[in-house]
Amino acid sequence: MTSMRIGIACYPTFGGSGVMATELGLALADRGHQVHIFSYARPSRLSAYHHGVEFHNVSVSSYPLFQYPPYDLALASVMREVMADQKLDILHVHYAVPHALCAYLAREMCGSCSTRIVTTLHGTDITILGRDPSYRDVICFGLEHSEAVISVSDWLEQQTRDAFDFKGRIDVVPNFVDAKRFRPRQDDAVRKELGGDDHRLIVHTSNFRSLKRVADTVEVLRRLPAEHNALLLLVGDGPDQPHVRDLAVRHGVADRVRFLGEIENVACVVSAADVALFPTESESFGLSALEAMACGVPVVATDVGGLPEVVVHGETGFLHPVGDCDALAASVGRLLGDAELSARMSAAGVARARENFSLPTMVERHEQLYARLLAEV
Fold first, then answer.
1. pTM over 0.70
2. Residue 17 — very low, low, confident or very high, per pLDDT cuts 50/70/90?
3. Containing domain of residue 34, as a range?
4. Where are the alpha helices (DSSP H) in the chain?
């Protein structure tokens, strides 16, 4: 395929949208495209140097006039500069607010620029902000002025149509996983360091926002029978972390909960676990669940949003209603106590991740979408 000049805008935080945007950019660069990544800080999975990738840090000056520094205007300005100087073919923004609007403004400032705008929706830009009257109209405007709109799940596509009465085309392109990085591995040293010599390991990864219901992981832990001798590994950070720490102390399980924070090599920790637990209230896709499956770790999660499109109940894990900590704990305990069941679900999860959500397949689908848009110019 002919090399393209592609801009990618994302949030740099420890969450699915930023991770996927970065991984996509790196993969596109590896396939010979010129990639420019825009954000207010270096994304967590973007190294200091990667051939074919240039990072554009968007800095915002603080003025006494502004209570909130205008990041969106600074971003649009940087986008416009790169769009004009590098003659971008595609500007692919992840998360509608404010990135889709910034892309449109940048292109308008360029005048006759032919850059095609692609907007990928990842979840809360639709499910929360999309239902807020303060944001609904601007999000709708951004979608209508994008040449392509991508949803990461069938569920999110329907949510978008319901929230905005959107009649335009939406391409469903699921998130993906790099099977070279997220794979089953037997690393006894890592497992020992995490406490796996003496405990069974339950892992949860998230950004610790309230809708992730991280506190429920502690509730599940305290419901497990003592014979499982389980240790809970919490990967990530966010606003609910102090509350979760306090809950673990109050329930007397603080010695069995390890807060690992935001770590670079997530795959090593996840692959060392026995079960991955995600009691989330809302999930447009479930990237952490997919990464756990790719590592051969059975998943216990809630039956919400796009998760049933990733985790097959009874085959690669178990799905239960939101807030049903008794059911979640029963499934975790079942997996910890039944080696044959765990091994079967482990193998099924690896196969599903590789067959349905592979990085090469999804990158090719993005390339095909970009080529379609450029052919329409």
1. yes
2. confident
3. 5-176+358-375
4. 16-30, 71-86, 99-110, 124-127, 133-144, 154-164, 188-194, 215-223, 241-250, 266-271, 287-294, 307-310, 325-337, 339-356, 359-375
